Amino acid sequence: MPAPQRRLRAEPSRTGPVGSALSTRWGARPVVMAGGVLTSLGFVLSAFARSLLHLYLGLGLLAGSGWALAFAPALGTLSRYFSRRRVLAVGLALTGNGASSLLLAPALQLLLDTFGWRGALLLLGAVTFHLTPCGALLRPLALPGDPPAPPRGPLAALGLGLFRRRAFSIFALGTALIGGGYFIPYVHLAPHALDRGLGGYGAALVVAVAAVGDSGARLVCGWLADQGWVPLPRLLAVFGALTGLGLLAVGLVPAVGSPDSWGAPLLVAAGAYGLSAGSYAPLVFGVLPGLVGIGGVVQATGLVMMLMSLGGLLGPPLSGFLRDETGDFTASFLMCSAFVLSGSFIYMGLPKALPSCRPASPLPPPPPEMGELLPVPKVVLLPPGGPHSTVDAAC
């Protein structure tokens, strides 16, 4: 079979709630370890594919299911480990995502040139298998607010009861709308730069500037959010709106005259978009404990991933359709900006998203910390037997 010309990407988010549900029943450690095995198996089996259908089954079904089992429980568990520096911890974790997006493209090209696409998939399978020992390092914790027993029934395990909470429903609707535009630049930013008249290296530089701004902003925004100067829902709405405005600027930049030009206006717009989008990313998951409580944060993380992915199912195909109809990506990025700005407007219905005329009551002091984990008297390690076994150690 000839090497596939279309880039396939395993998509974990639509089945994210499944990983969260399994994690609430059996704990994050075995679920993430199983996700690492499935992901690696999907890449390895795809290396022996003889048709495009085999690639869809290997990369889409097996590897995608593995990512679903690994990502949501790991990120939700991370939010449970921290109290005062939670958003910074999430930002640090998500920085790896931005860095890999920047480094993986040239690394994959090198693997393809050296070993071919089959060899590259085998090596990716070996790399992703490291998710299994990483999952083994997750430490189960019992926290105040956790349910006394695992939820019974599939609907309860998936966390669908969270939609009965007004704040989470508002957050879910806004996140789904933002997902409709958030992923379009990952797919169409480089083709848009080429349409604007930039050469191949200029288009690559535009993507690199956006990726660097995205990665750096995740750390800075995580630190800023943990200072407590501004409520997290307000920061979420602000940076969501700035992301929409950045996408608007990317869509409206003029064409350059020569392919040798660096396209300064597009570079500035892409950098502004990267900074605002990177600031938005950790806030999406950092705001969840305040909306659903620490006991429901793993289930909420899976639902949020699913909602963003459902929006992502609509955005890139619609963007490509508009490109085919209009001849460039201007209308695509305007549509993308409209989705993000609409979701940010809905975020204004969250508690504390808007300034209040009444004097704010002083915030209670955060609980003391030991290292990076929550307070010793309230946090215990659970043995492999589960929450009903004898507790053998304190964190």
Task: Kindly describe this structure.
By secondary structure, the chain is mainly alpha-helical. It is built from 14 helices and three strands. The model is unreliable at 1-12, 362-381 and 386-395 (pLDDT under 50).
Secondary structure: elements and pairs:
Layout: H1 16-26, H2 28-46, H3 52-81, H4 86-128, H5 131-136, E1 141-142, H6 154-158, H7 166-182, H8 184-195, H9 200-226, H10 232-252, H11 264-286, H12 288-292, H13 297-326, H14 330-347, E2 380-381, E3 393-394
Antiparallel strand pairs: 1-2, 2-3
Oligomer: single chain
Overall SS class: mainly alpha
Element order, helices and strands?
Answer: HHHHHEHHHHHHHHHEE
* Percentage of residues assigned to helices: 55-70%
Which range does the strand content fall in?
Answer: under 5%
The strands making up the biggest β-sheet line up spatially as 1-2-3
Mean pLDDT, to the nearest integer, reads 79
Radius of gyration: 22 Å
Total number of strands: 3
Bulk shape:
globular
Q: What is the terminal-to-terminal distance? A: 53 Å
Please work out how many helical segments DSSP would assign: 14
Contiguous runs where pLDDT drops below 50 for at least 5 residues:
1-12, 362-381, 386-395
Largest sheet composition: 3 strands, antiparallel
Salient structural properties:
about 400 residues; mainly alpha; 3-stranded antiparallel beta sheet; 14 helices; 3 strands; about 0% strand; disordered N terminus; disordered C terminus
